[in-house]
Amino acid sequence: METGLLYDSLNSIHPIDGNAWSDFQALLLPIELAKNEYLIRNGERTQFAYMLLEGVVRVFYNKEGAEYNKTFFMPGTFPTALTALLSNEPSHLNFQALLPSKLIKFSYPAFRNLFKKHRCLESLLLAILEREWINKERHDIHMVINDGETNYLIFREEYPQLENLIPQYHIASYLGITPIQLSRIRAQLAKKA
Amino acid sequence: METGLLYDSLNSIHPIDGNAWSDFQALLLPIELAKNEYLIRNGERTQFAYMLLEGVVRVFYNKEGAEYNKTFFMPGTFPTALTALLSNEPSHLNFQALLPSKLIKFSYPAFRNLFKKHRCLESLLLAILEREWINKERHDIHMVINDGETNYLIFREEYPQLENLIPQYHIASYLGITPIQLSRIRAQLAKKA
DNA sequence: CCTATGCATTAACATAAGTTAAGGAATCTC
DNA sequence: GAGATTCCTTAACTTATGTTAATGCATAGG
Questions:
Q1: Do B30 and B100 reside in the same domain of the chain?
Q2: Tell me, what CATH number does B55's domain have?
Q3: Is A112 on the interface with B (CB under 8 A)?
């Protein structure tokens, strides 16, 4: 199993000492998802955290049949239902692979059990939450302040290449607009250029 | 200084042992804000975390003169520029008292210095971030899924009494609509009832 | 190779929400 | 207590975006 990417990602967020890493590594399990397969559906509980190695995962909420995309996860990131994990409640969100994907998973309760022995892992979790908080706040500010066109341009910077890998209606949903409106925006941008 | 409310709030999030609390208590400073006075303006750095004892504080972003309200803080909560504190960068957000307010403040770096001695304080910060994350996610889901009318009703549940204490244009901005549109929604609701 | 399916685009139309502007109630100030 | 200020409401109008529907590629399956 390819754990080097995971180690590098985590260690760069907060240093992990050797013993902590070997205890943690014992928890890791590889999994694969086919295109359109789900990691978690809303209403399900989960005990697992994930890291994406290959592919793309989307997160969306679901209300009366309508889907609202919230985030896309790219390789090297953590498509994990944090709220469901932390609260131990059923997830309100769905996590779905949009392409054939490879991931590493590990049990979150087992991870927390290591905190007593390895304080650096608790500090690591704190550092991850801090980083996620900062990213989310920056993202939210963009989405509120800007119009659809600007957010589309930001999307293309945030997720390079992604627009060529997934249908545009997923992007439109992420931007909070209809695919028709996205099409109009793209037409306008093409005219400008 | 009235530190009981702060102790109870924090201790209920994560238990704080007696020594940790007395070391922490030594950091606390009381402050007062007049109506419309700022706690932090965008572009400023800050070292301080706050707890609100009395009054109301709003958080908003500012773009080309337009203001976008993001949150309101009520007594017992923490009107703190978390992102600016954690990242040590200038704040993108403004924190402003909407009523005469009383707060407790403490230095965040000094608080972090206590982590070595009192691990329970680090666990407390982790627990606070977890809770904030969960609240924010729930809030975001509401705002994306619902229309203006539903969000206005949710606002009234989330912040009981607040709509009588502050101008309606602040509420409209929070809901992402114009004051005129909020007025139309209120007129419709009155007609239904 | 032909057909069916999924997806993006475009046009025509409908609708919800923004803009501008005016009036009036409530509150503050001198 | 008179005048000024603030702010909420309402109306008339404009605009942006959603809706419905038709067209045309491209790709996959038989």
A1: yes
A2: 2.60.120.10
A3: no
